[in-house]
Backbone:
């Protein structure tokens, strides 16, 4: 099967019910609160799109930029996001999830692409 392993740490992925947020959507705590949040799709970094909740979008700047392959000290965050649309469908959906990294496959792929592009 394609994408059975995490692109970052190569752990076996699990299929899990997730919220629309690609970053925290696999978090068990989030799944009790997802309907209280807002979700939006953004374009950011190398033409990629992410759907993030209204917590993860503002918190994005707390990531270490080197996690995405940016040079140390690079400012990452919502200032680089281009708003695409609000997501009204908040229902849970299924995605693959890395229990080691704690992220959904859609986010892990985003990180992997950032790293690859930054290495060019
Ligand atoms: Zn989130
Ligand atoms: Zn992983």
Residues:
């Amino acid at each position: 099967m394609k994408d059975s392993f995490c692109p970052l740490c190569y752990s076996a992925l699990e299929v899990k019910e997730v919220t629309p947020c690609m970053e925290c959507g696999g978090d068990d705590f989030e799944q009790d609160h997802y309907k209280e949040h807002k979700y939006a799709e953004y374009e950011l970094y190398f033409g990629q799109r992410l759907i993030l909740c209204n917590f993860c979008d503002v918190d994005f700047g707390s990531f270490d930029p080197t996690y995405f392959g940016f040079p140390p000290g690079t400012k990452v965050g919502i200032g680089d996001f281009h708003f695409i649309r609000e997501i009204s469908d908040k229902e849970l959906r299924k995605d693959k999830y890395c229990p080691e990294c704690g992220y959904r496959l859609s986010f892990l792929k985003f990180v992997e692409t950032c790293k690859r592009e930054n290495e060019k």
Notes: The chain has a mean pLDDT of 95. The pocket of zinc ion (ligand 1) is lined by residues 21, 23-24, 52-53, 55-56 (CB under 6 Å). The CA atoms of residues 67 and 120 lie 16 Å apart. The chain has one domain: 14-115.
